[in-house]
Write a structure and sequence with these properties.
The chain is α/β, with parallel strands linked by helices. The protein is built from 15 helices and 19 strands. The structure holds flavin-adenine dinucleotide and iron/sulfur cluster (SF4).
Length: 546
Amino acid sequence: MAPVNRPRSVRDRNESAWLLPKDGRRCDPALVEGMRRFADDDVVDLVVVGCGAGGGVLTQRLARRGWRVVCLDAGPFWDPDRDWVSDEKGSHHIYWTDPRVIGGSDPVPLGSNNSGRGVGGGTVHYAGYTPRFHPSDFNTRTADGVGQDWPISYGDLRPYYEAMEEELPVAGQSWPWGDPHRYPQSPHPVGPNGQIVMRGAEQLGIDVRVGPVAIVNGGFGHRPHCIYRGFCLQGCKVNAKASTLVTHVPDALARGAEIRPDSMVTRIELDDAGRAAGVVYIREGVERFQRAAAVAVAGYAIETPRLLLNSATKRFPDGLCNNEDLVGRYVMVQGAPQVTGRFEEEVRMYKAPPPEVSSEQFYETDPTKDYARGFSIQTVSPLPITHAEHVAAEGHWGSVLREYMRDYVHWSTIGVLCELLPLPDNRVTLADEKDRFGLPVAHFDYSQCDNDRKLIEASEKVAVSILEAAGAQETLSIQRYAHLVGGARMGATPSEGVVDSNLRSFAVPNLYITDGSVLPTQGSANPALTIMALAARAADHLAASR
Ligand SMILES: Cc1cc2nc3c(=O)[nH]c(=O)nc-3n(C[C@H](O)[C@H](O)[C@H](O)COP(=O)(O)OP(=O)(O)OC[C@H]3O[C@@H](n4cnc5c(N)ncnc54)[C@H](O)[C@@H]3O)c2cc1C
Ligand code: SF4
């Protein structure tokens, strides 16, 4: 499916960056207060659940095409000037911290620092690394005998990757891995943490590149240049880092979409013909029903399957679209150990955006190894509280921990992302526990397989060796996970996936899922760019099918 009439100029297809104020404020209150409003009884063309990476792009794309779109988000409509602080401890409110239950042999800690809440979703607090997936990610089952083949190829997504890279925009060096490509903005200067990682990698003959990051280098529309003060994960108050709040929402509002914040969707309703009729949501303590001709769910890898499971009907007694017992299954996280090393010189790793330098040299399956698939390497530069977690993870506490923290400016940190495999029992189900809306909360079980364990171990050794080659006097490691995806995956047939190659659910013809939960595999690339590209592609399909 070719993109529908994609204008050549970025501004002609997405004016967001030019709709932001030029006077130093980070959002235009007139645009937000003056947005079009629909009544619950209006049968809008599309209601979107969640305004994050996938939902924000879908809303903008279809508003541009004249669709009457309402996007409901459970969290607030952020004003960066008013709501965010450049402070690690003061930023927990931008994360989804509602209760969840975890289990399995390798449980994934959820809550703070895991998924986003509010307009912009996870892109408000993400680091801004925006690599593409590799062509091999789309057929790991055929090529490597693991994972699952996608019902689309890399070539199907390439035009959408290019479009998103222009709209965010992405800065970085020419990329030699996967499908080699260039970026619209030149690479940022590299801070002290990035320089150490480059030095160590060079000693070992590991190829690294600067970027790719969705952080403005030089200016873009009315968005300013990055000021390199390192608070990307706390919500960039400068507007230099791309989030859909600044990259897609302004254009969506200007084109007539309504983005309704503080609206928790509790249920998708079907009509007698088995088509989605709209969504039930709670706003200011009142239950309402927004009617719509079509519904798109974009609530993230845990909340999307939870909403489907909570929307059981007589026809779908085990959860909406769960007639093949696939909803909630194959949820993935990347293994993400981080290694921090002490250097004689002062590093001050906070003096740059955490995403700076990366390598995909180990991304593909290496037949000489005893595991399939691979990992990527990235700088991460944690602020002090996160650094303290690293130190404590090695058992240091009390006065020893305090001494380590006094030494913070001498430490440099590197992270890896491992492609852990999709497994059916890594799944979201409903717990007995209820949330403040009276809805069963998500129960997420996660266990690693042998391949996962071998890969994590190998990747951590490479990370340690890079810091040692750069001259680290001591290293500390922490085991972590990153980037939840899956749970409502796409497939070629209903027995392989919840949605088809255009993200339309097999079971309900006017119900779409347009977020990270549709990914069949995750590669070892950060997922947001791929989620946005998939949502833009689904928008073309929706527009063409009307
Ligand atoms: C610390 C951190 C750093 C990260 N760094 C990177 C990075 O550098 N690069 C990268 O690619 N990815 C990164 N990620 C991951 C990235 O943020 C997510 O993969 C991405 O945002 C997921 O997109 P999504 O559309 O699936 O969901 P989200 O962007 O999370 O959007 C979901 C939205 O749905 C809303 N919602 C959920 N349920 C409901 C409901 N029932 N009713 C109404 N609204 C609802 C939420 O409030 C939220 O706004 C990072 C994540 C974390 C935690
Ligand atoms: S380092 Fe740059 S992108 Fe990150 S928060 Fe600061 S200004 Fe924003």
